Each structure stands twice: as structure tokens, then as C-alpha cells.
Amino acid sequence: GVVPSKASFTMHSILVNHFLHGAWYPKGGAGEIAFHTIPVIRKTGGNVLGKAPVQKILLDSQGKACGVSVKKGQDVVNIFAPVVISDAGIFNTYERLLPAEARALPEIQSQLRIAAHGEGGFTVFVGLNGSREELGLEATNYFMYPGNDLDEIANRYLTSSREEAAKNIPLLFVTCPSAKDPTWEMRHPGKSTMAIVTFAKYEWFEEWKDKQVNKRGDDYEELKKTFVDAIMQAVFKLYPRIEDRIEYISGGTPLTNQHYIASQKGEIYGMDHNITRLQAEAIATMRAQTAIPNLYLTGQDVCVGGFMGALQGALICTSAVLKRNLYVDVAQLKRHTEATNSKK
Known about the structure:
Blueprint: H1 9-20, H2 31-43, E1 54-59, E2 65-72, E3 75-80, E4 84-86, H3 90-97, H4 100-103, H5 106-114, E5 121-129, H6 132-135, E6 142-144, H7 150-158, H8 162-165, E7 172-175, H9 177-180, H10 184-187, E8 191-199, H11 202-205, H12 218-238, E9 246-252, H13 254-261, H14 280-285, E10 295-297, H15 306-322, H16 326-343
Parallel strand pairs: 4-10
Antiparallel strand pairs: 1-2, 2-3, 5-8, 5-9, 6-7, 7-8
């Protein structure tokens, strides 16, 4: 999620190592992760609330976290709990959900000084008429670049005016989720999907931030279209058979990310995971424990960006809450699983 000159060698190595061993795709799509997690939460006495946006973290008279306030329709409901774990990211948790006096605590301010917003993202979602075989789609992620000097082309793009930006797009991540899913053809025969992602500056779209989603006006839609058209011209070179088979196409700007995943600057990977973020001091400062008793952070801001980074953040957080090193438990579980499988 950063330009090469700001990327940590360690972070890049971990990522490459992960992919060398093979990336995986959940059967049925990414939604299956939530669908299979929710019953586990409910089985242990928990619950999952939908359409209940958190308004604030509740603090008791001693300044300890004691629950959250959520919106249910037009009403606000307080839900009390002995421990509050926030996966909303460092900026939302500290700047939006905590009262001003808690936000002003020196430990919280020192964490916020280290943190910077990651780059915003622009996504194109494409629905296609045709099967994987008909359209020549692959279960592969492509990274497309118009040149070899990645820093130069990325910096030129990110310093462009919004009118010029679409002519300077430095990279495209192109993926076909339907081609990766072995259950897709049974559920949606003769149809395919594609998603394309690139960077985009929040500032290019900021003037429409207070407008309602899907009602931001012609100028916004026209600006989006310049990005979508430029992106698709590059994608047609990779997958030429799709050009006349598009049934649905929609562009998502940093404002789209802001609306749907509550990222303040439209960032995909939460806080910026640049070299500064991965220095020893920053790693030691950004912990699951917070200066507010009973309040913990989890997810990618605790560790590193992406799905696996968020999963590590969860293990770190759970270890802190339970005061137990869950990595030891995971290692033992792995050994037990391997021993059991070898006996079969």
C-alpha cells in the first residue's frame, strides 16, 4: 500500500514469502469468512449486530471503557461490557469514538503522532456476461505498470491534479474473484466478475464528501468516469475478450471507501505502513493495549496491512486480553493437527 521508496524491505519480504507459498481464496467468496465466524461468536454467548453503527465508546467515572453506544434506527442504545475491543482503526477509535479528554492522554497522542493515513484507493467493479473459459479469465492477480521506474510514475501520479491524474495511473491490480471460486459456476453459470484497484488521492474527490452516496452529482460521476475509462483501456489489453461483454461497471473512489468501510481518508489498508511505521519505536508504541483501561485495539493497525496482517493483529490483541501467548497455542495446535493427519 505504499510507493516502493517508502516500503520496508521486511514488510515486502513477508508479503512475497506469503505469496510464494500460495495465496488462497475462500469457496463462496470473502463473505464466507463472516458467515462462518458469526456462529462461533454466538455459540460462546456473543452476538453480532448489523446496521448498528457505533457512536462512541462509553467510559465510566474512573475513565475505564465499559461499553459502546450504538445507533438502532433513530434510537441510541448503550451496550455495556467489561472489555471493549476496537477494530475500527486507530483514527476512528481515538479521534471519533473517544471523548476529547481521553483523546488528550499523552500515550494516545504519542500513538497518533506516529500514525499517518494510508493512500486512498480507487476500485472498478465489473460484472461480465460469459464464463471464465469463454472470456479467457484466470485465477491470477496481475500487477500492471506502464513503466519500470515505479517511484517516478507513482509520485508523478500522486502529485497530479485531479484533471490530469487519470492519464498518469502508475499501477493496476487486476483480479477475477469468480475465476478463483470453485463454487462460482454452480451458483452463477455464464457470468463472471472482475475487480481492478489502484491508488487515488482523497483530496481529488474531497469536495463531494458531504454529499449522499449515489447522489454526488454529474461532476463527480464524470471525474470517476475518466478513471474508469483509462483503467479499462489497460485491462482490455490483458483480457481482450471482455470488452463487449460488460453488463455492469462501477467505480469506487476514496469517498466510497469512506462510506462503506469508514476509512477517514478513503484508505484501503488503514494507517500508512511505511518504513517509519515499522521502526522499532513505532512497533513498541502501537500496541493492542491502550491508555484507556479495558479498551484494546485489534486488526491491521496493530500489526501490518491486509487480511493476514489483521489476523495477526487479532492474535496479538487476544493474547493481551487473555494475558496468554496465543502464538504458543497456535504452534501446539499445528503440531497436533499434523500428528493427527499423519496417522490417517
